[in-house]
Design brief:
Elements: H1 8-19, E1 26-30, H2 37-49, E2 66-68, E3 71-72, E4 78-79, H3 84-94, E5 104-108, H4 116-127, E6 133-139, H5 147-151, E7 154-155, H6 162-171, H7 177-183, H8 188-195, H9 201-208, H10 212-224, H11 228-245, H12 253-275, H13 281-295
Parallel strand pairs: 1-6, 1-7, 2-5, 5-6
Antiparallel strand pairs: 3-4
């Protein structure tokens, strides 16, 4: 399967189950953002269907023994929400014989977006297993799934740690591994993507705000940036990370309060820049800089 080191354990589980013909009827795959969910699902399909020609774009792949469980809106566009119609189609697919591959495979992407009626219909399908059909629930938010649905699935043994992410980034010669990982929310692949875009500059930018000599020039650059909204999003994530890492005690209460106030102000400023015509962006950034320095974390 995928060469990412954090996929080693679940890869072995799937390969062994396929080799021994004891693949579970329901599999639960929990992969956080930025850890390669698309790559794992692709290789999972190749392994379960024993087909080396599986395309990377699974959602558009037409194969008799594969189903990407998807609902559509009234205009025929893919919907983020999984409705009961998609689960009914899955139930019909599950009871059919495999046409080409040794077994059938259905994938519910981001399964936490399933509606309650659809989840109840899915539960019935999971409770009535059929041979040679594997139903995979992929999610980054398992707590949003019905406990009864989760209990009917075998959960693959993924392990995602900050140290493993750091080691991987260093193996990819990412010199800004720590800052990129923080700004990306902890996902190493998102960190690599971030390091290759202008947004990584926000980490250096907010650091320069602490210098009287550099602050004005830095705020001018930010105001003229073509990706200012994205930079504000990254700044918000940086603040939340600092807040989460600040220990809860009496001496830190003031700092934590200021961080929350600053995070709220970031959202307000972002909304004003995005929605108010002719807003004075530079003046808003001056206020953000003042509040940021009051947090004393730059």
């Amino acid at each position: 399967m995928s060469g990412y080191p954090w996929f080693t354990a679940p890869t072995k589980v799937i390969r062994r189950a396929v080799d021994e013909d004891r693949l579970a009827h329901g599999l639960l795959i929990v992969i956080p953002s930025g850890w390669g969910r698309e790559a794992f699902l692709h290789e999972l399909a190749r392994t379960i269907l024993e087909n080396p020609s599986v395309p990377s774009e699974l959602e558009t792949w037409a194969h008799a023994d594969f189903q990407w469980v998807q609902s559509y809106d009234n205009e025929g566009n893919p919907s983020k929400v999984i409705q009961v119609d998609a689960i009914r189609a899955l139930a019909h697919f599950a009871v059919q014989r495999a046409a080409i591959a040794p077994r059938k495979l259905a994938i519910l992407p981001q399964a936490h977006n399933i509606t309650v009626p659809a989840a109840n219909a899915l539960l019935k399908t999971l409770e009535e297993p059929v041979s040679n059909c594997c139903i995979v629930l992929e999610t980054s938010r398992p707590a949003q799934l019905l406990p009864t649905v989760v209990s009917r699935c075998q959960r693959l043994p993924f392990r995602f740690s900050r140290q493993e992410a750091m080691d991987f980034l260093k193996s990819q010669n990412q010199s800004d591994a720590t800052s990129c990982l923080d700004l990306a929310g902890g996902g190493p692949l998102d960190a690599i993507a971030l390091s290759q875009t202008p947004e990584i500059a926000i980490h250096r930018a907010v650091t320069r705000l602490g210098s009287d000599r550099e602050r004005t020039a830095e705020l001018d650059r930010m105001a003229k940036s073509g990706n200012l909204l994205d930079m504000l999003d990254q700044w918000y994530r940086l603040v939340i990370r600092i807040f989460s890492e600040t220990k809860v005690n009496e001496s830190n209460d003031s700092l934590r309060g200021k961080l929350l106030e600053f995070a709220d102000e970031l959202l307000i400023v972002r909304n004003q820049i995005e929605s108010v015509k002719g807003v004075n962006t530079r003046l808003l950034l001056d206020r953000l800089a003042f509040l940021w320095l009051a947090c004393a974390v730059s």
